[in-house]
């Protein structure tokens, strides 16, 4: 890897990649206790549109620092995928306080950003 001197800290991912039901429960419980919203990318290594969304998902995680971003491979964590009723990849879900708030199926960056912005807007309105 060639460095230009300032890229080292930028390489650290803000997306937590989960590989077990236990890690899912841990992250969701922690986020619920902290009142932190969660965006989950349900992905699969064999699904090209899903893999293509990884970079965009990283960008979102950098943009929305007060949201927890999780990535779940449906083949590695089948229990969670079936519990959340994931039927196709990529699927993006938005959770608050452990409950599903919104779900979006498909590799559509604009729709995902709009879903998150709409959610943030509604949360801010409730705080006032």
Keywords:
128 residues, alpha/beta, five-stranded mixed beta sheet, disordered N terminus
Describe the protein in words.
There is one protein chain. It is built from five helices and five strands, in the order βαβααβαββα. The protein is of the alpha/beta class. Strands 1-3-2-4-5 form a five-stranded mixed sheet, with helices on both faces. A hairpin with a 2-residue loop joins strand 4 and strand 5 (99-105). It is globular and about 40 Å long. It comes from Citrus sinensis (Sweet orange). This is Thioredoxin-like protein CXXS1.
Q: Order of strands across the widest beta sheet?
A: 1-3-2-4-5
Radius of gyration over C-alpha positions, nearest whole angstrom: 15 Å
As residue ranges, the low-confidence spans are 1-10
The general outline is globular
Give the overall pLDDT as a whole number.
89
Structural class: alpha/beta
Largest sheet: 5 strands, mixed
The fraction of residues assigned to DSSP E strands is 15-25%
Element-level helix/strand string: EHEHHEHEEH
Total number of strands: 5
* Termini Cα gap: 47 Å
Helix percent band:
40-55%
Q: How many helices in DSSP terms? A: 5
Protein name: Thioredoxin-like protein CXXS1
Organism: Citrus sinensis (Sweet orange)
């Amino acid at each position: 890897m060639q460095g230009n001197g300032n890229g080292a800290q930028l390489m650290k991912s803000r997306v937590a990649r989960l590989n077990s039901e236990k890690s899912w429960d841990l992250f969701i419980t922690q986020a619920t206790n902290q009142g932190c919203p969660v965006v989950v990318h349900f992905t699969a290594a064999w699904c090209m549109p899903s893999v293509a969304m990884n970079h965009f998902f990283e960008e979102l995680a950098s943009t929305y620092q007060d949201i927890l971003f999780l990535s779940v491979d449906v083949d590695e964590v089948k229990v969670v995928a079936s519990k959340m009723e994931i039927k196709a990849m990529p699927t993006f879900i938005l959770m608050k306080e452990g409950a599903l708030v919104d779900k979006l199926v498909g590799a559509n960056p604009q729709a995902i950003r709009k879903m998150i912005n709409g959610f943030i807007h509604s949360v801010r309105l409730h705080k006032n």
